[in-house]
Each structure stands twice: as structure tokens, then as C-alpha cells.
Amino acid sequence: MGKSGFFSLRGQVVYWCAALLLLATAFPFFWMISTSFKPLREIFVFPPHFLPTRFTLANFERLFGQTRFLTYFRNSIFVSTSAVLLTMVIATAGAYSLTRFKFYGREKIASLILFTYMFAPIMIVIPFYVLIRKIGIANTHLALIMAYTAFCLPFSLWLLRAFFQSIPMVLEEAALTDGAGRIRALIYVILPLALPGIIATSVFTFILAWNDYIFVRILITSDELKTLSVGIADLYNATVIDWGMIMSGGMLITVPVVVFFIFVQRYLIAGWGAGAMKG
Known about the structure:
By secondary structure, the chain is mainly α. It contains 13 helices and no strands. Helix 1 runs antiparallel to helix 13, helix 8 packs antiparallel against helix 9 and helix 10 packs antiparallel against helix 13. The chain is globular, with a radius of gyration of 23 Å.
């Protein structure tokens, strides 16, 4: 086996560092799942038990019975999915136009798009709140969808632009020569080739919208319109903090993201890898 193999000093250092990083990353999730199935009196025992001595679903029963978890869950699904769809429609059209049409200032516009992504959400959320109050959509899901779309659009546009640039022009020209219009060539030739990039960008947008806390906290005041991130965080405000219920809620929040990630993993790796080489 060569010097760069598993048993070399360098290989051992790399694998041990990777194992420690995996442990540090995965242990909080393991503890959250384990705690969600523990009885209340077992959560704070010392020494702690890594696995429940008696599995119970009481934490989940309290979560569904005493909170608006299902409402928060439904709101998160609706807002995140809507933000992904709106962002993809605008970003795809914008990236296509930046790579297929020639107009004055095209490259400068492309550069400024990524520059706008450098502003942190906390810097734009107050001006955005003032704006949505003026147009009368404060405390609505539409305001959240617009906020996520506005924040994700620069990076999505920049990422998709790299994918569209990698697709040879001759393929589209051949479709146009065969009689297909611009729209049909885009739908049947360009978009299938850009699908890994579109999925990778969709995952980025979905995770950002799903995990967001700042925009929901400031833009939404009605309890029935809150999403999971703020709804679960509000459980900390109770007089007696129910850690079993909070951990069960945290576990259920993580499940959709994990399922979504597993479903699109193949496209995600292909998309990010290709984007890294072409961007």
C-alpha cells in the first residue's frame, strides 16, 4: 500500500480528524433523538443514559396535544416550498437571459448580483419590514416568501448562471434549426441538462427557508402563522421548560430535511461538483 494509504501517518491523521468531526457533528443529533424518547424523570439523571431505559412516546403526545406543532409544520412546508418554486422560476429565467442574450452591462450585472448576497439577513430585515408594511402584506406568509426569494435569489442566480454557461450553444441552435421555438428549446433541451444545478439550488433555498428564524420573528406576529423554527423556540418561554417535548419537536423538524436530502442526494452531489468546476 502506498504512503498515502489508510495506514500511513497522513492517512491516519486525516481519518481520525474526520472521525472526530463526524462525532462532534452527529452526537447532538443522537442525543436529541435519544432524549425525545426518554421519560421526563430520566432526562436529567446523573450519570446520563445514552439510550432510554424505557422508550416512551409521551413527549410526542404532549407536543401534538399542547402546542400548535402541526400548524407550524404546515406553515413551514407551505412557505419553504413556495419560496423554492418562486426562486427557481425567477433564477432560471434570469440565469438563462444572462448567458444567452447579449446586452449592455451584462457582465457588470452578473458581478453585482453576487455582491448583493454579501448583506446579512439582519441588515435587510428592518428595511424589508418597513417596505411590506407600506404595501400592506405585513404578518402574512406572502411577506415571508418574498423575503426568502429576495435573499436566496442572488446566490441561486449566480449558481445557475454557471450551469447554463456550461451547456453548449450548439445544442440549442440545433433545436432552433429543427423548428423548435425559444421556449421549447429551453424546456426540452436546456432545462434537462441543467437539472442537477436546479436541484442543488433548490436544496439550498429550501434549507435556508426551513431553518430561518430572523425573518419569521420580525415579519410574523400571529401565532397561527409562525413556522417551526420560531414555534419551537417559543417553547423555551414557558415557566417550566419541557425538554422532552422540545427535543421531540427538534427531531420532527429535522426529519423532512433529512428525507429531502436523501431523495436529492445524487443530484446534489453532481450539481455542486459540476458547479464548483464550472463556476
